Protein backbone atom coordinates (compact mmCIF):
# COMPACT_ATOMS: atom_id res chain seq x y z
CA UNK A 1 0.00 0.00 0.00
CA UNK A 2 1.33 3.43 -0.99
CA UNK A 3 0.62 5.72 1.95
CA UNK A 4 2.31 8.89 0.66
CA UNK A 5 -0.84 10.00 -1.20
CA UNK A 6 -3.25 9.24 1.63
CA UNK A 7 -6.87 8.56 0.71
CA UNK A 8 -7.52 9.53 -2.92
CA UNK A 9 -10.82 10.31 -4.62
CA UNK A 10 -10.94 9.74 -8.37
CA UNK A 11 -13.62 12.18 -9.53
CA UNK A 12 -15.44 10.86 -12.58
CA UNK A 13 -18.79 11.05 -14.30
CA UNK A 14 -20.41 14.33 -13.36
CA UNK A 15 -23.30 15.90 -15.21
CA UNK A 16 -21.66 17.31 -18.37
CA UNK A 17 -22.22 16.19 -21.94
CA UNK A 18 -18.93 14.30 -21.63
CA UNK A 19 -20.09 12.12 -18.72
CA UNK A 20 -19.68 8.86 -20.66
CA UNK A 21 -16.07 9.58 -21.59
CA UNK A 22 -15.32 10.80 -18.06
CA UNK A 23 -16.51 7.50 -16.61
CA UNK A 24 -14.23 5.65 -19.03
CA UNK A 25 -11.27 7.83 -18.03
CA UNK A 26 -12.00 7.60 -14.32
CA UNK A 27 -12.35 3.83 -14.27
CA UNK A 28 -9.02 3.43 -16.07
CA UNK A 29 -7.26 5.80 -13.65
CA UNK A 30 -8.88 4.15 -10.62
CA UNK A 31 -7.75 0.68 -11.71
CA UNK A 32 -4.19 1.91 -12.28
CA UNK A 33 -3.95 3.66 -8.91
CA UNK A 34 -5.45 0.76 -7.00
CA UNK A 35 -3.14 -1.63 -8.84
CA UNK A 36 -0.20 0.48 -7.65
CA UNK A 37 -1.34 0.21 -4.05
CA UNK A 38 -2.94 3.65 -3.73
CA UNK A 39 -5.96 3.92 -1.43
CA UNK A 40 -8.11 5.24 -4.27
CA UNK A 41 -11.90 5.34 -4.53
CA UNK A 42 -14.40 6.31 -7.22
CA UNK A 43 -16.37 9.50 -6.58
CA UNK A 44 -19.13 10.78 -8.86
CA UNK A 45 -20.19 14.39 -8.12
CA UNK A 46 -23.48 13.69 -9.88
CA UNK A 47 -24.35 11.24 -7.09
CA UNK A 48 -22.66 12.72 -4.03
CA UNK A 49 -22.04 16.31 -2.89
CA UNK A 50 -18.41 17.32 -2.94
CA UNK A 51 -18.36 18.33 0.75
CA UNK A 52 -18.49 14.61 1.54
CA UNK A 53 -14.86 14.42 0.40
CA UNK A 54 -13.87 16.35 3.52
CA UNK A 55 -16.25 14.45 5.76
CA UNK A 56 -14.82 11.11 4.60
CA UNK A 57 -11.19 12.13 5.04
CA UNK A 58 -9.92 12.32 1.49
CA UNK A 59 -6.40 13.72 1.18
CA UNK A 60 -6.20 14.23 -2.59
CA UNK A 61 -8.44 14.30 -5.63
CA UNK A 62 -7.55 12.97 -9.06
CA UNK A 63 -9.79 14.83 -11.49
CA UNK A 64 -11.03 12.70 -14.38
CA UNK A 65 -14.04 14.95 -14.99
CA UNK A 66 -14.42 16.34 -18.51
CA UNK A 67 -16.43 19.33 -19.64
CA UNK A 68 -18.45 21.82 -17.68
CA UNK A 69 -18.84 21.26 -13.97
CA UNK A 70 -15.50 19.46 -13.84
CA UNK A 71 -12.96 21.02 -16.17
CA UNK A 72 -14.10 24.65 -15.99
CA UNK A 73 -12.85 25.76 -12.57
CA UNK A 74 -16.01 25.03 -10.59
CA UNK A 75 -14.88 21.77 -9.00
CA UNK A 76 -11.39 23.21 -8.60
CA UNK A 77 -12.85 26.13 -6.66
CA UNK A 78 -14.82 23.83 -4.37
CA UNK A 79 -11.74 21.71 -3.69
CA UNK A 80 -9.82 24.89 -2.86
CA UNK A 81 -12.52 25.75 -0.31
CA UNK A 82 -12.33 22.25 1.15
CA UNK A 83 -8.53 22.35 1.30
CA UNK A 84 -8.11 19.16 -0.75
CA UNK A 85 -5.20 19.17 -3.25
CA UNK A 86 -6.26 18.20 -6.77
CA UNK A 87 -4.64 17.27 -10.05
CA UNK A 88 -4.30 19.57 -13.02
CA UNK A 89 -4.75 23.29 -13.45
CA UNK A 90 -6.13 25.74 -10.92
CA UNK A 91 -9.40 27.68 -10.95
CA UNK A 92 -8.44 30.47 -13.36
CA UNK A 93 -6.54 28.35 -15.87
CA UNK A 94 -9.31 25.74 -15.90
CA UNK A 95 -12.01 28.35 -16.46
CA UNK A 96 -10.16 30.20 -19.23
CA UNK A 97 -9.01 27.04 -21.02
CA UNK A 98 -12.57 25.67 -21.06
CA UNK A 99 -13.63 28.85 -22.86
CA UNK A 100 -12.40 28.55 -26.47
CA UNK A 101 -13.09 32.22 -27.20
CA UNK A 102 -11.22 33.64 -24.22
CA UNK A 103 -8.39 31.15 -24.70
CA UNK A 104 -7.91 32.55 -28.20
CA UNK A 105 -8.05 36.13 -26.89
CA UNK A 106 -5.27 35.36 -24.39
CA UNK A 107 -3.15 33.65 -27.04
CA UNK A 108 -3.61 36.52 -29.48
CA UNK A 109 -2.67 39.03 -26.78
CA UNK A 110 0.52 37.03 -26.20
CA UNK A 111 1.33 36.97 -29.91
CA UNK A 112 0.59 33.27 -30.34
CA UNK A 113 -0.97 31.97 -33.59
CA UNK A 114 -4.57 30.75 -33.67
CA UNK A 115 -7.20 30.59 -36.46
CA UNK A 116 -9.43 33.63 -37.06
CA UNK A 117 -12.96 33.45 -35.72
CA UNK A 118 -16.36 35.06 -35.15
CA UNK A 119 -18.70 34.73 -32.19
CA UNK A 120 -22.06 34.01 -33.80
CA UNK A 121 -25.74 33.96 -32.82
CA UNK A 122 -29.12 33.79 -34.52
CA UNK A 123 -28.75 37.38 -35.75
CA UNK A 124 -25.42 36.82 -37.52
CA UNK A 125 -25.02 37.64 -41.20
CA UNK A 126 -24.07 34.16 -42.41
CA UNK A 127 -22.92 35.32 -45.84
CA UNK A 128 -20.63 37.90 -44.24
CA UNK A 129 -19.18 35.32 -41.82
CA UNK A 130 -18.46 32.94 -44.69
CA UNK A 131 -16.97 35.73 -46.81
CA UNK A 132 -14.62 36.80 -44.02
CA UNK A 133 -13.50 33.39 -42.76
CA UNK A 134 -13.72 31.49 -46.01
CA UNK A 135 -14.98 27.92 -46.33
CA UNK A 136 -14.95 25.39 -44.75
CA UNK A 137 -15.71 26.78 -41.28
CA UNK A 138 -15.84 24.95 -37.96
CA UNK A 139 -18.81 25.91 -35.77
CA UNK A 140 -18.70 24.74 -32.17
CA UNK A 141 -19.88 25.52 -28.64
CA UNK A 142 -17.41 27.70 -26.76
CA UNK A 143 -17.57 25.68 -23.53
CA UNK A 144 -17.70 22.05 -24.69
CA UNK A 145 -14.94 19.56 -25.40
CA UNK A 146 -14.60 16.26 -27.27
CA UNK A 147 -16.05 17.92 -30.40
CA UNK A 148 -19.53 17.90 -28.82
CA UNK A 149 -21.95 19.94 -30.94
CA UNK A 150 -19.32 20.78 -33.55
CA UNK A 151 -19.95 20.97 -37.31
CA UNK A 152 -17.66 21.39 -40.30
CA UNK A 153 -19.57 23.76 -42.58
CA UNK A 154 -18.80 23.63 -46.31
CA UNK A 155 -21.49 26.08 -47.54
CA UNK A 156 -22.78 29.33 -46.04
CA UNK A 157 -26.32 27.94 -46.19
CA UNK A 158 -25.33 25.38 -43.51
CA UNK A 159 -24.23 27.97 -40.94
CA UNK A 160 -27.65 28.57 -39.39
CA UNK A 161 -28.18 24.84 -38.72
CA UNK A 162 -24.63 24.47 -37.41
CA UNK A 163 -25.19 27.37 -35.03
CA UNK A 164 -28.50 25.84 -33.88
CA UNK A 165 -26.79 22.51 -33.12
CA UNK A 166 -23.97 24.17 -31.17
CA UNK A 167 -26.46 26.39 -29.33
CA UNK A 168 -28.11 23.27 -27.92
CA UNK A 169 -24.91 22.77 -25.92
CA UNK A 170 -23.98 26.36 -25.09
CA UNK A 171 -25.25 29.94 -25.16
CA UNK A 172 -21.96 31.01 -26.75
CA UNK A 173 -21.00 29.68 -30.18
CA UNK A 174 -17.83 30.26 -32.18
CA UNK A 175 -17.22 29.99 -35.92
CA UNK A 176 -13.56 29.32 -36.66
CA UNK A 177 -11.54 29.57 -39.85
CA UNK A 178 -10.59 26.18 -41.25
CA UNK A 179 -6.83 25.70 -41.50
CA UNK A 180 -5.68 23.00 -43.89
CA UNK A 181 -2.88 20.90 -42.45
CA UNK A 182 -1.81 18.11 -40.15
CA UNK A 183 -3.71 17.76 -36.89
CA UNK A 184 -1.34 17.45 -33.92
CA UNK A 185 -1.67 17.24 -30.19
CA UNK A 186 1.06 17.84 -27.62
CA UNK A 187 0.71 16.85 -23.96
CA UNK A 188 2.68 18.22 -21.05
CA UNK A 189 3.42 16.70 -17.65
CA UNK A 190 4.62 19.32 -15.22
CA UNK A 191 7.45 21.14 -16.99
CA UNK A 192 8.06 18.22 -19.36
CA UNK A 193 6.57 18.43 -22.83
CA UNK A 194 5.74 14.95 -24.12
CA UNK A 195 6.14 13.73 -27.73
CA UNK A 196 3.90 15.11 -30.46
CA UNK A 197 1.02 12.90 -31.65
CA UNK A 198 -0.04 13.22 -35.30
CA UNK A 199 -3.70 12.40 -35.98
CA UNK A 200 -5.16 11.16 -39.25
CA UNK A 201 -8.94 10.81 -38.98
CA UNK A 202 -11.27 9.30 -41.61
CA UNK A 203 -12.08 12.04 -44.08
CA UNK A 204 -10.22 14.49 -41.85
CA UNK A 205 -13.17 14.37 -39.44
CA UNK A 206 -11.79 13.97 -35.92
CA UNK A 207 -15.21 14.10 -34.23
CA UNK A 208 -16.62 12.60 -31.02
CA UNK A 209 -17.21 9.19 -32.59
CA UNK A 210 -13.77 9.00 -34.19
CA UNK A 211 -12.11 10.19 -30.97
CA UNK A 212 -13.53 7.59 -28.64
CA UNK A 213 -15.54 4.84 -30.26
CA UNK A 214 -13.89 3.69 -33.50
CA UNK A 215 -10.54 2.28 -34.48
CA UNK A 216 -10.47 4.01 -37.87
CA UNK A 217 -8.49 7.05 -36.73
CA UNK A 218 -4.73 6.66 -37.11
CA UNK A 219 -2.28 8.03 -34.53
CA UNK A 220 1.43 8.46 -35.11
CA UNK A 221 3.76 8.83 -32.15
CA UNK A 222 6.59 9.39 -32.82
CA UNK A 223 4.94 11.91 -35.12
CA UNK A 224 7.37 11.55 -38.01
CA UNK A 225 8.15 15.27 -37.98
CA UNK A 226 11.79 16.40 -38.12
CA UNK A 227 13.27 16.57 -34.61
CA UNK A 228 13.98 20.30 -34.79
CA UNK A 229 10.44 21.08 -35.92
CA UNK A 230 8.95 18.89 -33.19
CA UNK A 231 11.07 20.69 -30.59
CA UNK A 232 9.81 24.07 -31.85
CA UNK A 233 6.21 22.90 -31.61
CA UNK A 234 6.77 21.55 -28.11
CA UNK A 235 8.20 24.91 -27.04
CA UNK A 236 5.20 26.68 -28.55
CA UNK A 237 2.78 24.41 -26.70
CA UNK A 238 4.55 24.91 -23.38
CA UNK A 239 4.35 28.68 -23.88
CA UNK A 240 0.67 28.39 -24.80
CA UNK A 241 0.03 26.46 -21.58
CA UNK A 242 2.05 28.83 -19.42
CA UNK A 243 0.29 31.92 -20.80
CA UNK A 244 -2.99 30.35 -19.64
CA UNK A 245 -1.40 29.49 -16.24
CA UNK A 246 -1.92 25.76 -16.79
CA UNK A 247 -0.10 23.38 -14.48
CA UNK A 248 0.22 19.71 -13.57
CA UNK A 249 -0.68 18.17 -16.88
CA UNK A 250 -2.71 18.87 -19.98
CA UNK A 251 -2.78 18.66 -23.74
CA UNK A 252 -2.90 21.28 -26.46
CA UNK A 253 -4.23 20.79 -29.99
CA UNK A 254 -2.93 22.53 -33.09
CA UNK A 255 -2.83 22.42 -36.88
CA UNK A 256 0.45 22.47 -38.83
CA UNK A 257 0.15 23.78 -42.40
CA UNK A 258 2.08 22.39 -45.34
CA UNK A 259 4.46 25.35 -45.20
CA UNK A 260 5.22 24.72 -41.52
CA UNK A 261 3.00 27.31 -39.81
CA UNK A 262 1.36 26.17 -36.54
CA UNK A 263 -2.08 27.35 -35.41
CA UNK A 264 -3.18 26.69 -31.83
CA UNK A 265 -6.73 25.35 -31.52
CA UNK A 266 -7.48 24.71 -27.86
CA UNK A 267 -6.09 23.63 -24.50
CA UNK A 268 -7.39 20.63 -22.56
CA UNK A 269 -6.71 20.83 -18.82
CA UNK A 270 -8.22 17.41 -18.01
CA UNK A 271 -7.61 15.29 -21.10
CA UNK A 272 -9.10 11.87 -21.65
CA UNK A 273 -7.49 8.81 -20.10
CA UNK A 274 -9.36 6.16 -22.10
CA UNK A 275 -8.08 3.40 -24.36
CA UNK A 276 -8.22 5.87 -27.28
CA UNK A 277 -6.69 8.79 -25.38
CA UNK A 278 -3.66 10.68 -26.59
CA UNK A 279 -1.83 11.63 -23.39
CA UNK A 280 -1.20 7.97 -22.42
CA UNK A 281 -0.10 7.26 -26.01
CA UNK A 282 2.43 10.08 -25.97
CA UNK A 283 3.55 9.28 -22.43
CA UNK A 284 4.38 5.69 -23.43
CA UNK A 285 6.82 6.97 -26.03
CA UNK A 286 8.39 9.16 -23.33
CA UNK A 287 8.84 6.11 -21.09
CA UNK A 288 5.75 6.29 -18.85
CA UNK A 289 3.41 3.33 -18.74
CA UNK A 290 -0.19 4.12 -17.81
CA UNK A 291 0.31 3.49 -14.10
CA UNK A 292 3.46 5.61 -13.96
CA UNK A 293 1.61 8.40 -15.79
CA UNK A 294 -1.27 8.32 -13.30
CA UNK A 295 1.11 8.35 -10.34
CA UNK A 296 3.07 11.26 -11.80
CA UNK A 297 -0.13 13.27 -12.30
CA UNK A 298 -1.28 12.46 -8.77
CA UNK A 299 2.12 13.43 -7.37
CA UNK A 300 1.62 16.93 -8.77
CA UNK A 301 -1.75 17.49 -7.05
CA UNK A 302 -1.80 20.82 -5.21
CA UNK A 303 -3.84 23.76 -4.00
CA UNK A 304 -3.61 27.39 -5.10
Automatic annotation (TrEMBL):
Localization per Swiss-Prot or TrEMBL: Cytoplasm
Main location: cytoplasm
Alphabetical keyword list: ATP-binding, Cell shape, Cell wall biogenesis/degradation, Cytoplasm, Ligase, Magnesium, Manganese, Metal-binding, Nucleotide-binding, Peptidoglycan synthesis
Active site (catalytic residues): 18, 146, 277
Domain of life where this protein originates: Bacteria
PROSITE patterns, sorted: ATP_GRASP (PS50975), DALA_DALA_LIGASE_1 (PS00843)
MF annotations from Gene Ontology: ATP binding; D-alanine-D-alanine ligase activity; metal ion binding
InterPro entries in the cross-refs: ATP-grasp, ATP_grasp_subdomain_1, D-Ala_lig_Van_CS, D_ala_D_ala, Dala_Dala_lig_C, Dala_Dala_lig_N, PreATP-grasp_dom_sf
Entry GO terms, CC: cytosol
Enzyme Commission number: 6.3.2.4
Chain positions recorded as Mg(2+) 1 binding sites: 253, 266
Transmembrane segments: none
Note describing how the cofactor binds: Binds 2 magnesium or manganese ions per subunit.
Family matches, as NCBIfam families: D_ala_D_alaTIGR, PRK01372.1
Family: Belongs to the D-alanine--D-alanine ligase family.
Name of the protein described by the UniProt record: D-alanine--D-alanine ligase
Primary gene name: ddl
Amino acid sequence: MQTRFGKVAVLMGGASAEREVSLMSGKAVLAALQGAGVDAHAFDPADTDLHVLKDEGYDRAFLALHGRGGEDGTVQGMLEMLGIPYTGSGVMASAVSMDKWRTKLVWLAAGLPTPRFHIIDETSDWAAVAADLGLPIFVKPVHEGSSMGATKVTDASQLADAWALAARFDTLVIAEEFIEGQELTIPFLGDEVLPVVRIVAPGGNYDYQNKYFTDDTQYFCPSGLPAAQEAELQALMLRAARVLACRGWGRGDLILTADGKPYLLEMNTTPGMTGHSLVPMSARVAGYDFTALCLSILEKARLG
